[in-house]
From TrEMBL:
Family recorded in the similarity comment: Belongs to the 4-toluene sulfonate uptake permease (TSUP) (TC 2.A.102) family.
Stretches of the chain forming a coiled coil according to its record: none
PANTHER family the UniProt entry points to: MEMBRANE TRANSPORTER PROTEIN, TRANSMEMBRANE PROTEIN YFCA
Protein name according to UniProt: Probable membrane transporter protein
Bilayer topology annotation: Multi-pass membrane protein
Localisation: Cell membrane
Keyword Methyltransferase set for record: no
Amino acid sequence: MISVLAPPGLDVWAAVVLIAASFFTSALTVSAGIGGGVALLGLMGYIVPVAAIIPVHGVVQLGSNVGRAAMLRDHVAWACLAAFFIGAVPGAWAGSSVVGALSDSALKAALGGFILVITWMRLPRLAAIRLPGFAVTGAITTFLTMIFGATGPFNAVVLSKTFPDRLRFQASTAAVMSLQHLVKTAAFALAGFAFGPWLPLIAAMILTGLAGTWVGSHILRKTPESRFRLVFRILLTLLALDLIRRGVAGMAHG
């Protein structure tokens, strides 16, 4: 029965690992603020065929983030979401035109450096980011996510400066990421990626991801604000350093 979840080219054990990982990474994202999507992407890089990593990851993250946004829907900043969408559409179109044409090593290193700076330095302008800023963010991060998949930390840093209330931050981040992954999935489908063989595995990963979201949301509400923010910044720093490491290593071997 489990074998039907493994698409051609993927072992059954790998499918089981991915299904379990979807639960834990979703719980990590909603309880600690960030990191689940990048962690899942990193794991997929070891066991999923290269051509399928980013599109499959995008659909799974779409399901996970939709569930998280639905659970926190009363706290979503809808006007910001609309502005983000205005930028995301052209960003996806531009990104799809250069997928595979650029090395992602330099982009990873640059993104990691940006996250470090924006996390630890005081940037008052971001605290007052307006709707045009969300449109620009939507265009840039959607363009980048088409190329190497994980721009959740970028979006989360911007939104964390805009929404100091953690529930509004979590809800708006989930809504933004849902929209971004939806646009990305549509772009990959239009570009010809065959999602069909991957649908059973994707469905199973979305279900376990929703379960992880539910567990993580309960942890979030019980976590003291100061501890939440500290864990959030530490996780962002670790993710940024790993992005830099991977980017530099990729350029060195390139």
